[in-house]
Structures are given as structure tokens and as C-alpha cells.
Amino acid sequence: MGSLKSFVLAGAATLAMIPGAFAADLAPVAPPPPMLPQAAPVEECCGGWYLRGDIGVGVFNSMTWADQDLVAVNGSFVQKAHADTTIIGAGVGYQWNTWLRVDATAEFRGATEFKAADSLFNAFVFNPNGTQGSQQFNFFEAKVSSLVFLANAYVDLGTWWCITPFVGAGVGFAGNTINGLTDFGAFSSGATGGFGFADDHTKWDFAWAIHAGLAYNVSNNLKLELSYRYLNLGDAVAGTLHCGNGCTSAPVQISNITSNDFRIGMRWLLNDTPAPQPVFAPPLMRKG
């Protein structure tokens, strides 16, 4: 009986030593690797100053030609024509936040050919057939160019796939110059009329604009714009009209000059994009 008790005690001691033996044979558990640094998120748009440049084409709308002397003899302009113009502009602005920005722009609109014809009844003309009076036509040609200065505000409407639609409005002033205006007259009877010319003249007038377009985020600092603008440049007035025989006439006025402008532009944000900052996560701690 004593030997049986000794055998049982020896077996129990052996079983108690087995877990320690296995534990001694197992490799130590390595701590988890530290988290790799992660770049902090960078905002797509942030406040700051920017420079801009634009080129484009302006398509003029119908406008009003007037001459006080023509009105006095019950005449009127019966035909008008004009070509398109080129646009070169630059400006500086400030991006307040992700949806509001403002800028001030200056642009040159190239010299464009304007033409018109008027009609009036001249009662002092003696026709070859012995009748008196004839319908007279005058044909005008001139070059019109403009300098435009605007203060603009824009609302960006959100960004999808790097594209940001926007709308805006601007106010300012325009200097409209009429160069080389000539007046050639001819009578309906076939007799040639006189020739006149006007002095070059610049008129500064109130201008306003409405904008709409799309901006593409080339990078956080560089934006490409495709835009439409409706622009009202006010009026232009030529200098005094000189007749071929030494007489003078009231200056020709071109009123309500408006244009549909289609432009390509770039905006460059001057502030540097914040560099990604490493973020380290604390190591996982193992409970003992």
C-alpha cells in the first residue's frame, strides 16, 4: 500500500512539471511591430493669395449707333456689323475659403472692326432729271478697342472628380477707344458724296460682368479654368467728325456695347501647400 502511494505521488509531481518544460521549449512572444507613419490629410483648397491669367475671344452683341446731327434731319442708322475681338487679361485675388474668392482683373481687348450705314433724306440735292431731294447713305468704318478693369467675386459650388463649377459677378470701368473712324457718303442717284474722318477718342464708362465656368484642379496650387462671361462695356464716343470740305459734325456714339466672352484661364495659389506630417500611433501594450 505504501508503494502504491509513492507511485501516485511521483506521477502527480511529473505531471506538474510538464507545463513548465513545454513553456521553456516555446520561443518568447515578440511584441507587435510599431505602426508606420501616416501622412496627415491635406486640404484641397485653403485660403491665400493667387495670381491669374486669361486669354479668350469676345463675341459682340448688337449695339446702338447714334449721331445727333443725323437725328436732327430725321435720319437713322440702318445697318451695323462688327467682328470678334481677342482678350488678354491678368489679375490678383484672394481665396477666402473653399467656396468664396475675390479678385481684381485688368484686360486688353484688341482693336476690332466696326461698320455701320445711315440713311437720311437730303432735300438740298438737285438730281440730273431735274427733281430735288434724294435719299443719302453714309458708310462708317472704325476700329474699337478697350481696357477693362473689374473687381469680381465668385462662389465655388463644390468639387467632383477635381472639377469645381463656379458663378460670379464683377463691376468696374472700361476705357473704350474709337480709332480711325471714316465716313464715306454716296447718293442713291449714283453721284458720289463727301468723305469725312473723326479724331481718335477714348471714353471711360461703367462696366459690369456675370461669370460662370468650370475649374479643374491640376494640383493643390494650380487651377485651370474654362469660363463664359457676359460683359457690358458701356459706351464709346468718337472724336469730332470732320467733313471733306472743312465742316464739322457731331461725334458718332456707339452705345450699350456688350459681349459674350469665352476664356481659358489659370489660377496659381501663392501659399505653399502644407507638407504631410507623420503621425505615429502608440504601440499596443500586452497585458501581463
Structural commentary:
A hairpin with a 5-residue loop joins strand 6 (100-126) and strand 7 (132-156). It is built from two helices and 15 strands. The protein starts with a helix and ends in a 9-residue tail after the last strand. The strands form two sheets. The protein has an eight-stranded antiparallel beta barrel. It has a two-stranded antiparallel sheet with strand order 1-15. The protein has one domain: Beta Barrel (Porin). It is mostly beta strands and 288 residues long. The radius of gyration is 40 Å and the shape is elongated. 10% of the residues lie in helices and 61% in strands. Residues 39-45, 187-192 and 275-281 have low confidence and may be disordered. 22% of the residues are buried. The longest helix is centred in the first third of the chain and has 24 residues, at 2-25.
